[in-house]
Structure formats: structure tokens, C-alpha cells
Amino acid sequence: MLCFLSLGIVSGCDEKTNELSTAASLLKPCPGFEETGKPPVVYGAQCGELGVKENPQDAQSAEIKIAILRLPAISPVAQADPLFLIQGGPGGSSIEMANQLHGFFADIRKNRDLIFIDQRGTGKSNPLHCEKMSPLDANLPDAVQLEKQLDIMRACVDKYKSSLPFYTTWHAVQDIDAVRTALGYQKINLWGVSYGTRVALEYSRQFGDNTRSIILDGVAPTEIALGKYSARDMLAALTAVSKECMAQDECAAQYGNPLEKAEIVYSRLRAAEEAGEPIQVTYRHPRHQQEATQRLTPRAFSLLMFMALYTRDMTVLLPEMISHAEQENYQLLAALLSLASDQAYKMNIAEAMHFSVICNEDWPLISASDRATTPPFFGFNPIEDKAAICAMWPAAELPADYWEPIRSTVPALLLSGKYDPVTPQVWANSVANTLPNATALVAEGGNHGVSTEGCMPQIIAQFIERASMEGVNRDCVAQIKTLPLVLGANQTASVSSSSVKVSSSAKNISSSSAQASSSATVMEGAQP
Questions:
Q1: Residue 86: band (very low, low, confident or very high) from pLDDT cuts 50, 70, 90
Q2: Residue pLDDT, tens place only, 246-298
Q3: How far apart are CA 379 and CA 238, in angstroms?
Q4: What are the distances in angstroms from CA 54 to CA 41, 118, 128, 175, 353?
């Protein structure tokens, strides 16, 4: 170390030494296989936690721990500005998505640390979990399921009541900046997906001087209420898939108009429920091949279509599933419902944190007129689903200007998928209007979350390297095309009267898509 050469270099060395010292005291090697039964995300991964006040305005408030995972840069001389990665939901764990994401962001990690923080109330950061619905509850009538969900949420409010007002985005970004300070970083880059984009945006508003760049994948800003436009956006996404099917000769020949057929299926299921003669299907569960019975409710059908629109792999199954159901062959529909229900039960979504965000940040923007005039998506009304829960939820105090559009000169890359049912391109366009240094890209074949599709990881890496899109070739985005909506013989889901063998694409129900499934309390996804 040549720290004696000049005052400027001494200062720089002191800062770097302090950074290393602070990080060393906060972060340790992550537990290995012998402790957890699983290897760390990558060799050299570092884990730690930072104590913060649950109520930042009260010096006597209880302390909670914010969990941190750092994947150090490969280069021994890393860039000074790391990438912080923020999960969606709300209520998802950023640390848990590290296993899925770190490989896609390998180019960034060559020269920059990757920092995953579990937002307060999620993952390992004082998680606010509620009781979960059982997969068996999927066989209950819709009204009974909804009432059971409300009972669960009432108990959850009683459990966490005094804490809930402090689990909002506004509070969470202060934790992120506390971690930045503790780790010794001057400026940071932020990547967020779905609800995580709101966190990144709010951080850039509160801590603009500490923000080098932001990448927003599936933009969900504060001024556009989650749920308010969901039914409209879901229908637009399904309509786009239906049009694409009719534009593909083979899909049109085999499946016709999926949207029209979906309306027929929904009407039939609703009529059966109203007549007290619900449709029951006996099938073999695609995971364990045991015979099972599935009650097909109109709500379950609506939610399954919504869920399938989250990912490219699931979207390709929609025309086939809908067409078979229209012909009263419900085997594939039942199989996909069972997979979705199983996955939703296993999800690590912090439901109480989820509704602390939704009920304090989104629900205030939904008027009585919105509730009265917003048409549902095949009977599923995201607004009404929230009404009873938000009526019982403790209120948080947020700044009066919290819902104002964020105006910032921070370089921003905004990503959208054409078939996204929850955060479509129109939201990114709205945000770009007040971010003069923003570039918006649309993946024509993408759904909800496109950072890992095609060349997007390379574009993100180049954007972060430059903190600008200048000189970055984006032509490759056009190659992220819609997948064929008729699966090949080696991919298709084979359906018979006695069993269903669902392809690997059907099993690829990610955490974000499962948030839209029959898991009761989380309807709007996260969002990774």
C-alpha cells in the first residue's frame, strides 16, 4: 500500500480501509453445507445482518435485524459502486432469489459486488408471516375459501398489530441506505423487479445523491395503485396471447380463439357452482402421480390464467389448456391447478408485510367509484379482494407527497414484457415521463420480469458499466420473441382420461407466478 505518497491517496486508502473494516465486522462467510445441508450461493459468499429500529422515529423502539447477502466481485479490484437487488411481492425474499439470479448477472459480478437484502418483514429480516391456506382448501367453494382467508388475516393483524405501520416501502429504503453506509459504499446501483421497482424508485427519491443508476423490471410506481388496473391489464395480456395464437397458423388451427373459449369455460364453471353442482375432476397429480380429485371453481380458473401469464413457459400452455377445457376435458386444467396450489403453499411470501404495503400505499388510491365501476377479470376482482382486508389493516403515516411521480436525473433502464398481466409497458412509459435519463425497452415475447430473457443480462451489464445506454446495442431485444403456442411432440403435455404428464415448462411455476395462484392472500405477485 502506497498510502504515504500524497494526501489524496492517504484519504482514499483510509476510506477503503474503513470500508473493508466495517464490512468485515458486519459480514462473515455464509454457513456451509455442514451447517445448513446446502452449499452457499457461490464460493466466498458473505452473510450478515444489521440492526435497525423498527420505528425509526422512536429511539426506544425495538431493534430488528436486516439480513444481508454479499456476493463479492470476482475482480480483486472491484468497482466502488455495487449492485443492490430487490425482490418483488411485496413480501418476497431478495436473498432467496440469489440462487436463481446470480448466474444471469455474472458479467456484472466480474467487477462489482452483488448485494441482496431481505426487506424488513421478509425473508430473514423479522418476517411477518401469516398462517397459510392448505392445498386441500382449493377444493372448497370460492365463498368458503374467501372467508377462511379473512379469518387468517384477522388473526395475523392481531399478531402483529403494533408493528404493521412500520413495514412500508418508505421505511424499507431507509434500511437499504443504512446497509449502504454500514458497508462503506458511497453510491450504489439498484435493480428491482415488480414491486422491487417501487423500492428502487423510492430509494432514488430519498437518497438521490447515493444512487448511481436504477434498473426497473416490471415497473410498479407509487402513483399507480397495485390492483386498481389489474383486471384491465390481465385481460389485455390474455387478449394479446389470444391474438398471437390466431396469428400462428398451427395454433389457430388447433385451438381457435382462446379468449372466446375461456369465456365459455368460465361461464360453464360459474353456472355449475351456482346450480350447486360443481365440476369435479379425478386425475393423477403430475408431481407424485397419485390419483386426486380437483374441484374446478370459476375463481380458480381465472387465477390460473392470471398466473400462467406471468411466465413465458406457462403462457405457451394457455391455448391448449383453455381449448381442452372448452371441450370438457379438464385434465390439464386440474393438473396445473394442483401444481400452482402446491407451489403457492411452499412460497416464502410474508403476507402481513405484503398487506402493510398494499393497504397503506395502494388502497388509498382506490376510490369508491373505482370499486363500483372496475370490471372483473373473469369474475376475479382484485380490488374487492383487498377491500375487507384493508378495512382491518392498521394505518401507517406516510409523507403527503409519497404518491407524487418521482422526478430524478438518475440514469434509469426500464424493462417491460408485452404479455405482462400486472406491470405492463404503460406503467414504464408513465414513469419515464419524469425520468429524463430513462431508456425503456420492451421484450415482445416477454411476460412479467424479463431481466433473464435473451440478451437482457448483457444489456443490463453494459448499462451498469456506463450508467448510460449510450453506445449499448439494443437490437438483440427484438430476438426475444413469443414462443410457439403449439408445443412440439417432445414438449407437449400429454393428456388422457386417467393421467396427466405435464411437461417441464408446466412445472416451471416461479415464485412470482405462484403469487397469482390459489394462494389466498397474495394476489398481485411479485413479483422476481
A1: very high
A2: 999 999 999 999 999 999 999 999 999 999 999 999 988 887 888 888 899 99
A3: 15
A4: 29, 14, 13, 10, 13
Can you tell me the distance from the alpha carbon of 469 to that of 459, in angstroms, rounded to the nearest whole number? Answer: 9
Task: Give CA–CA dist 406/222, Å, rounded.
Answer: 9
In this structure, the number of other CB atoms found within 10 A of the CB of residue 277 comes to: 9
For residue 416, give the nearest of 298, 240, 279, 262 by alpha carbon.
240
Query: How far, in Å, are 104, 225, 524 from residue 430 at the CA level?
Result: 28, 13, 20
The whole-model pTM stands at 0.89
Measured CA to CA, the distance from residue 262 to residue 22 in angstroms comes to 57
Residue % of the chain over a pLDDT of 90: 70
Which amino acid belongs to residue 393? W
Q: What is the residue-wise DSSP string for 146-203?
A: HHHHHHHHHHHHHHHTTTGGG-SHHHHHHHHHHHHHHHT-SSEEEEEETHHHHHHHHH
Choosing among 3.50.50.60, 1.10.10.10, 3.90.78.10, 3.40.50.1820, the CATH entry for 23-127+166-224+402-479 is 3.40.50.1820
Between the CA of residue 146 and those of 154, 158, 198, 278, 380, what are the distances in Å?
12, 19, 28, 17, 12
Sheet holding 114-117, edge to edge: 27-29, 46-53, 63-71, 114-117, 83-86, 188-193, 211-217, 412-417, 438-443
For the chain, what is the mean pLDDT? 87
CB contact at 8 A, 312 and 483: yes
The more confidently predicted of residues 509 and 450 is: 450
Position 140: which residue type?
L
Q: What is the pLDDT of residues 194-209, one digit of tens each?
A: 999 999 999 999 999 9
- Looking at residue 143, its pLDDT comes to 84
